[in-house]
Amino acid sequence: MKRNLVVFCVFCLCLSLVMSTGAFADEKGESFSNGFFTLTIPEELSALCEVEVRENGIHVYHAASKEADCGGYAFGLDLFAEPSDHAGMPGGQKIGELTTADDVLYDIVLSYPTDVQYDFSSEKSIEDYRKIYDAAEEIAKSAIGVGGTSFVYGAGTKGADLYSEVLQKHVQAITEQWDSGRLEQENMSFMYNLLRMGEGDALDRAGYIFCDINADGIDELLIGEIAEGEWKGIIYDIYTMVDRAPAHVVSGWDRNRYFFVKNTFLCNEYSSGAIESGWIVYDLAANSTELWPQVGFKLDGYENPDQPWFLAYGQEINDNEWENVTEDLWTERKAVFEEYERFDFSPLSTVAAPLV
Predict the structure, then answer these.
(1) What is the pTM of this model?
(2) Domain shared by 265 and 295, yes or no
């Protein structure tokens, strides 16, 4: 997700001093190195760019927009020794990992601006800026480690590489028919115990998908039930990466279930009785298992049988401070969060058997 550049630039300025630009030409364009990695700007774009080489990164600007005092920032690559150092960084997504000759590991983060950085009064400026901006990912892939360092694009970001042991544990739990108490003790939804009581193999009825639900560039693991209709895409367990290790976020069940809302939100649907139910929309914090409540919708016939529609925002949800509203307002606000991702989960039966 592309977020506020101003906060990001302040962060980077505090982190490191701007160094002199170490540029050199090669057959493919102009290359720049900061001592950790080299980045190559294609020949067709190099004349449009101004590049700043920093102690911990390389930032690329549209030169004409920067000269016109419009910012000009198009994208940047920065390295961080700890995931917590860039968690929640505006505009930043992890794209890979760099390892030094003495085995120090760094995350490489590609960042973009979210505010206007080009001279919008000039069509040429807009066009040239867009060329640089649109090429950012391909340029980032050109990064090469220097001085004994090794850069691997995509390392530490893909679910298939991150959650193998977690998936194998779920296969083991279902295969060995762990009871509900054991599942909860292991931070797993008790729904897997119920799935095996239905028709067919429970490993074919439970499934998984990798999805970056908080737009930090790193996949989460979502495990749920393979279903159709309103239940399609239902999530029973969510895992994320915290300090480069898998961590359990939350478990759900049939009456307290989770869905992924398009635009990087989670929705928790719950039912507390025949005339009370709710929908709480959350954002998952980067490098954390913390779910931040954004907005909540509740139907509560116990509280107000004649007007059961309630709204709450942020901390109000945790404090149970709900506002009684009209049906029209409630329906209008809730409609924004009703487009769920109806995932086609891969069955757990396709996961390699756990090692004995």
Answers:
(1) 0.89
(2) yes
Residue ranges making up the domain that contains 89: 5-153
Residue 263: Cβ-neighbour burial (10 angstroms; 0-12, 13-18, 19+): exposed
Q: Are 222 and 105 within one domain?
A: no
On whether both 117 and 230 belong to a single domain, the answer is: no
User: Quick one: 349 exposed, middle or buried, by C-beta within 10 A (0-12, 13-18, 19+)?
Assistant: middle
Overall size of the chain counted in residues: 356
Is residue 92 within 8 Å of residue 86, measured between CB atoms? yes
Does any domain span residue 280? yes
Tell me the per-residue pLDDT of 65-87, one tens digit each, with 9 for 90 and over: 999 999 999 999 999 999 999 99
Each residue's pLDDT tens digit, 10-57: 334 333 333 333 444 445 789 999 999 999 999 999 999 999 999 999
DSSP 198: S
> What's the pLDDT at 356?
52
Contacts of residue 137, defined as CB under 8 A and 6 or more positions apart, other chains included, come to 95, 110
- 3-class SS at 128? helix
- Last-in-domain residue among 115, 138, 153: 153
One domain, residues 100 and 204: no
Write the pLDDT tens digit of every residue in 129-141: 999 999 999 999 9
Place of tokens 């030094």: 100
Give how far the C-alpha of residue 77 lies from the chain's centroid of Cα atoms, to the nearest Å. Answer: 18
Q: What is the mean pLDDT of the chain?
A: 91
Statement to judge: residues 101 and 219 lie in one domain: no
User: Token pair for residue 102?
Assistant: 């003495």
Are residues 52 and 184 located together in one domain of the fold? no
Residues 15 and 144 in one domain: yes
Task: State the pLDDT at residue 355.
Answer: 55
Query: What does the pLDDT average to over 185-199?
Result: 89
Mean pLDDT over 258-266 rounds to 93
Does residue 355 fall inside a structural domain?
A: no
